[in-house]
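Proteins fold reproducibly. Consider a sample protein:
=====
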Amino acid sequence: VRQVQADLKQQALHTYGISANDVVNALSIQNLITPVGTQKIGTFEYTVNLNASPSDIAAFNDLPIKTVNGTVIYMRDVADVHDGSPPQTNVVHVDGKSAVLLAVVKAGAVSTLSIISGIKQLLPSVAKTLPAGLNLAAVGDQSVFVTSAVSGVIREGVIAAALTGMMILLFLGSWRSTLIITVSIPLAILASVMTLSLLGETINVMTLGGLALAVGILVDDATVTIENINRHLEHGKEIETAILDGAQQIVVPATVSLMCICIAFVPMFGLGGVAAYLFRPLAEAVVFALIASYVLSQTLVPTLANYLLRNQVLEAHAAHYDTDGSPDSIPAKRNPLVRFQQGFERHFEAIRSGYGGLLQLGLHHRGKLIAGFVGFTLLSFALAPYLGQDFFPSVDGGQIKMHVRAQTGTRIEETTRLADRIGEAIRKIIPADELDGIVDNIGLSVSGINMAYNNSGTIGVEDADILVSLKPNHAPTADYVKTMREQLPRQFPGTSFAFLPADMVSQILNFGVPAPIDLQLIGNDLQANRKYANELWSRIKQIPGIADARIQQAFQQPTLNVNVDRSLAGLVGLSEKDAATALQTTLAGSSQTSPTYWLNPKTGVSYPVSIQTPPRNLGTMSGLKNIPVTTSSGTGTQLLGGLATIQRAPSNAVVSHYNVRPVIDIYATPQGRDLGGVAADIRNVMQETAHDVPNGANVFLRGQVTTMTGAYQQLFVGLGFAVVLIYLLIVVNFQSWLDPFVIVMALPTALAGIVWMLFASGTTLSVPALTGAIMCMGVATANSILVISFARERLAAGADAVSAAIEAGGTRFRPVLMTALAMIIGMAPMAIEPSQNAPLGRAVIGGLLFATCATLFLVPTMFSVVHARDRKTAEPAPVHARATQA
């Protein structure tokens, strides 16, 4: 910060018997920014100006300070006035070169990419105005992470759409049918984006993740509609009749299925706090896309079918097999794709025939099949405690942010040299072809406003933040962090290192705290709290999986205690206030106690004026003792050393407060272990040491772990509420209490599949994984509704429960399989990609794999059980009987 700096001369002050307070008083009464009025003389009214302020900086040296023995002492006699700045408490290095760091913080409602793009466009024009030798560069660019995440989600969505389209083409065997279905994907996504825009949402990682999640199920409604139309075409119906009958047959179950999936996302809207801002847009994107897909399946899809399938009735018959399993009479095709599809159909029919036999076998042994599913599900739930819990998966943003703390009280110059050496060590760890740059932000920020946006916990000039930016295609960031944690403390003993969240998501989830775990000790007895905090810290850092455990507040700040002899000071006409004023002006500058400003008449810009002794001139204990002390009236000048004793002693560098009360923070970060497991061990330590907590003090576990626990509770409660709503919805639709019970029987198996997939892939339970579970349960419910609705139709037509179950399984085998495969294939890129959405994709895949088995076997079996008394012919048919084909 530019200011007018008056550097006091200690020896001259002592010679003339003048104190720093005398200089401050003289400056304050001779540097005024004030109008004095106007004067009417003759026919004019004159503005009266007074030379109340020096005309330039050099004129400050001519200000009289005091008259001593008849001699006027001027400012130039006791101080050097020049254009300067406060003593440096902050140093910034970019790749080892001195720099000035300007942080830009966006408003919450504005797009990060838009802000950064606009800034980068302005940089060339700003760079032209800089003096020669100065360069302007963007560092710590968060748009790199955002762009990478957005492009990754878009890539996953495009691959998912392509794979889903290929799967549909394989099953339907008609490019026209495939075109009708796939055209609904971009239209549904466009409708969802438009709705999100109307609600004020932006295109971000979470909304794009929701759209990518919906890609696999967006084809569900259109697939079921087209598949049902093709089935009616195979029965020899005309195109209009087939479209009307096919659409009418599935409109009710499709509507109920849509409502079930949307209700399944109710827990996401019940989230509070930061979790709501992160995951509610994802749920909105999915729900809006599904609603648009349903509307398109009931309007656009039948219309396109009427135009595109009118002349393709023969191909529709050729693409499928009739009910007895023999292919229709169709001419031989030379097109290899057609021949491949026909071969696929033959194999698919063999699979469906085998499924029919297995289903009948299961119906013949209903008790064993049901007991097997129940036992498997219960066994699977026994694995749940071993999954681990995280709030959000770690994100590789291509940046490493490290907080370095030297010994408490280390000078800024020494901290700067330490940071340079650490930077050299980092360059030996990270290859040059992967390292983009290193930014050192050392010491305290100049402005308190900057400190408000600093989440590193910097408390003094012994602290430094080091930001390491990596180039694209770098090795995993976590590997470099692990290596630095092992090597840097050995190379720099006595220096503490802590790795902070560098990506935006982790910073948001931590609420600005520099670690996901914040153990707070709150109490008024600072000495007792400090002792207990050290005990707690020593126990916590021994917990497996804990890294960067440290006490945030520094205790051993080197301090010089100045003890004024009040009696002796009173004898010479001085007081404690006089000594304090002299020390404040000399050491901290007059701008802290007596702020004054100088207005440059040429530019109209005002600058603070500070009087202070340069720190370089007070580098010894004797320099401190030789500070002159005088009264406010300017009499009785004495040296500080003659009035007080000075002793070295440690003290607290900072005292933090939480809700007014003093607090000590113990921060910790999980490494190689889930957040929930680490937090559980910390709670055990808290219980074991509860008897040592000082009187009146309290210990709280806060940070991301608290937010995670709250989000989990909200999700589980909301999920239970959603299941009840889904059940009641199906009860109203089916007018039955038993059939909805049969439908939801697939859900426990879906949850078991999720547990197995997460356990097998080494994925912890997280909010994205729970989001995938919600989607999986919605799809599983929708598939079960398709099966049960057809079974009820056959039961109403006079079939017995077993026959109805067999026909429902065989008829709905294709759409159920297509729906599940579309979702599984759509989630495959997301599950494979090492991104924040990987747990979501894995949960969906695992849940649907097992839920589909339950839908095709357990649900028909349970239907036959609950309707066994509807007809006396409810016994299973012979195992060798064939399932009815679609």
Notes: Residues 401 and 502 are 5 Å apart (CA to CA).
